[in-house]
Amino acid sequence: MKYIIATNNQKKLIELERILSPLGINAVTAKQEGISLDDVEENGETFKDNSYIKAYAACQKSGLPAIADDSGICVDALNGEPGIYSARFGEKNATDTDKNELILNKLAGIKDRGAHYTCAITCVFPNGDIIQVEDYCYGEIAQKPEGNGGFGYDPIFLYDGVSFGNFTSEEKDKVSHRGKALRAFKQELKKYLEDKHADQ
C-alpha cells in the first residue's frame, strides 16, 4: 500500500520509512508523486493543527493516505517559544546555527533552562478517517552548542545532561519526541489497518 509523506525533509522520510515498512507500507514523498505542497499554509495554532493541515492537503491532492508531522522545541523561559515557529524562528533564511544562537542569546543569564521537544503526527485517509498522535521529550537548553549529530536544535538540547548533538541516531530514536510519536503512530496505524481488514 502506498502512503504519501508530506515532507521534503529526507531525514524525516528515512525515519518514517523505517517505521512503516514492516507494516507493508510504501512511503513516497509528494515530490516523488509530482505533487507540490508549497502552497500549503501552516497557519494552525498547535503542532497537531499544522500536521493535520499538511496531511489533509497531501491526501486531497494525491488521493492517497497521507502522513505529516509537525515538531519543534518549546523553551519554558521564553513562554514556549519558538514552538510551532521553530522552523521559521529568527530572521528569514536563518540557519540552524543562527536559530540556536538566538535562543542562547535570549537565555543569557537565565537559570531556568527547561525545554521540551514536541512531535505531532497525523494521517489522513481518502475516506476521511484520521489518526493523530503527539509525544514529547523533556530536557533543558545547554550553555553552548555541543556535538555534531542530529539537526535543528539538537546541539543545544540536553537530555539527562547530554546534548542530542552527541547522540547516535539509534540512541536518539529511543528517547526523542519523534521516536516516541512514531512508535505510538505505528501502533495506532497497525490497529486501524487490522480493524479495517476485520470489517471487510
Notes on the structure:
- With 200 residues, this protein is an alpha/beta fold.
- It has a single domain (2-199), classed as Maf protein, CATH 3.90.950.
- It has 5 helices and 7 strands.
- It has helices spanning 10-20, 47-62, 96-106, 169-175, 177-199, and strands at 2-5, 26-29, 66-75, 114-124, 130-141, 157-159, 162-163.
- Helix 1 links the parallel strand 1 and strand 2.
**What is the strand content?**
15-25%
On the 0-100 scale, what is the average pLDDT?
92
Query: How far apart are the termini?
Result: 16 Å
CATH topology: Maf protein
Q: Helicity, in percent?
A: 25-40%
In CATH, what is the class? Alpha Beta
Second CATH tier, the architecture = Alpha-Beta Complex
Structural domain tally? 1
> What is the 3D form?
globular
Order of strands in the sheet with most strands = 2-1-3-4-5-6-7
Number of helices, where a helix is a run of at least 4 consecutive DSSP H or I residues: 5
- Low-pLDDT parts are none
Structural class: alpha/beta
Give the H and E element order.
Answer: EHEHEHEEEEHH
Q: Write down how many β-strands occur, each being a DSSP E stretch of 2 or more residues.
A: 7
Gyration radius from CA atoms, angstroms: 17 Å
Q: Characterize the biggest β-sheet.
A: 7 strands, mixed
Summary of the model, kept short:
The chain is α/β, with parallel strands linked by helices and 200 residues long.
Question: What does the secondary structure layout of this molecule look like, with pairings?
Answer:
Layout: E1 2-5, H1 10-20, E2 26-29, H2 47-62, E3 66-75, H3 96-106, E4 114-124, E5 130-141, E6 157-159, E7 162-163, H4 169-175, H5 177-199
Parallel strand pairs: 1-2, 1-3
Antiparallel strand pairs: 3-4, 4-5, 5-6, 6-7
Helix pairs in contact: 1-5, 4-5
